[in-house]
Design goal:
The protein has 251 residues and is an alpha/beta fold. The chain is 39% helix and 19% strand. It has helices at residues 21-25, 42-54, 80-100, 112-120, 122-134, 148-156, 189-202, 229-242; strands spanning 2-9, 30-34, 58-63, 105-110, 140-143, 160-165, 204-206, 212-214, 219-222, 246-247. The protein has a 7-stranded parallel β-barrel, surrounded by 7 helices. Helix 2 (42-54) packs across helix 3 (80-100), helix 3 (80-100) crosses helix 5 and helix 7 runs parallel beside helix 8. The radius of gyration is 16 Å and the shape is globular. InterPro entries: Glyco_hydro/deAcase_b/a-brl, LamB/YcsF/PxpA-like. This is 5-oxoprolinase subunit A. Pfam families: LamB_YcsF (PF03746).
Length: 251
């Protein structure tokens, strides 16, 4: 059994740092690097790409709403055409730094409010898939299994990577529990690790209400902006490898 382990990186801005990118890059196999809209600036993006390239970690464009103040977690009104162009813009910005580092962008993963809304909104999912279509190199699309993002990827002939979250609780409908709900974020590394192993080995996860939910995934995410993210990522990796799961980038 083989699975990818990804993490959101490069999410600082200026003098503000959010996560220990260097430590996380030693653990994960794919890095979702912020492209400047919800977080990240040219220097941070460059360092993240160089760190990923040095470790042979796959680089993904972590595209989001143009919302630095809200860290991309606020719902914004953006037309599908504008969202398509803004997505392509972010991919292109990251691609320049990835190439300069001797690597390339391999996939796209929406961030925050865009991730959640595009999973349900076919217009937004189509806009993201259209941006990938317009890019000059083939890119995969990462998102929730059974989502509008998966349907848009399949319509466009784009490789889709189904993703599960080690450090987030799920609803009975198989969606992420909103962060505003108590207990939505798992801060215990052992609990997160056990959830990751369960998703990979059985294709199920326990919802926040105690129900069993089907989630067939090929990549596991640990949020870099969560407290103790390095410890959690390290524990998740150790638990997966102890369960005879081979870790490797899908791209």
């Amino acid at each position: 059994m083989r699975v990818d382990l990804n993490c959101d990186l490069g999410e600082g801005f200026g003098q503000w740092t959010l996560a220990d990118d260097e430590a996380l890059l030693d653990i994960v196999t794919s890095a979702n690097i912020a492209c400047g809209f919800h977080a990240g600036d040219p220097m941070i993006i460059r360092r993240a790409c160089e760190g990923a390239a040095e470790r042979n970690v796959a680089i993904g464009a972590h595209v989001g709403f143009r919302d630095l103040a809200g860290f991309g977690r606020r719902e914004l009104s953006v037309s599908p055409a504008d969202l398509r162009d803004e997505t392509l813009y972010q991919i292109g910005a990251l691609a320049g730094f990835a190439r300069a580092a001797g690597s390339r962008v391999s996939y796209v993963k929406p961030h925050g409010a865009l991730y959640n809304s595009a999973a349900l909104d076919c217009g937004r999912a189509e806009a993201i898939a259209s941006a990938i279509d317009r890019f000059t190199e083939p890119l995969a699309l990462m998102g929730p299994p059974g989502s509008q993002l998966q349907r848009a990827a399949e319509t466009h002939g784009i490789e889709f990577v189904a993703e599960g979250f080690a450090d987030r609780r799920y609803t009975a409908a198989g969606t992420l529990t909103p962060r505003s709900v108590t207990g939505a974020v798992i801060d215990d590394p052992d609990v997160a690790a056990a959830q990751a192993v369960r998703m990979v080995s059985s294709g199920t996860v326990e919802s926040i209400d105690g129900d069993d939910v089907a989630v067939s995934v090929h990549s596991i995410c640990v949020h870099g902006d969560s407290p103790g993210s390095v410890r959690t990522a390290r524990q998740v990796r150790h638990a997966l490898e102890s369960a005879d799961v081979t870790l490797g980038a899908f791209a």
